[in-house]
Amino acid sequence: MQCFYCGREVLETVHKPKSFRVDYYRLHTGHTELDFLVNPKPDAPPLRYLRLTHPIDIFTCVDCYARADIRQQLDDDISGRRALSDARAQGESLAQHNSKG
Q1: Cβ 72 vs Cβ 57: under 8 Å
Q2: DSSP H helices in the chain
Q3: How far is CA 83 from CA 41, 42, 75, 88, 97, in A?
Q4: pTM, two decimal places
């Protein structure tokens, strides 16, 4: 397992009798699409939600997680403002374009 941001290998959580050490956090995310459920209340509009269509796990090491900008990206993904998988694809596309010119 590698950190999504810096690429370093992350270690499993170590449990000791009176403590533990965490080296990474895992975000279960991926591509979503808007979907609807029938609302059980009479005359109420359908319930909207984001359905996970292509799940991926993103691992973030504790060092990268300590950065405010990375925590904001994770929060944006969880809230549906901007998907991390889309942001990574856009960044890689831009890097390839810049290396050609």
Answers
A1: no
A2: 62-65, 68-79, 84-100
A3: 31, 34, 10, 9, 21
A4: 0.65
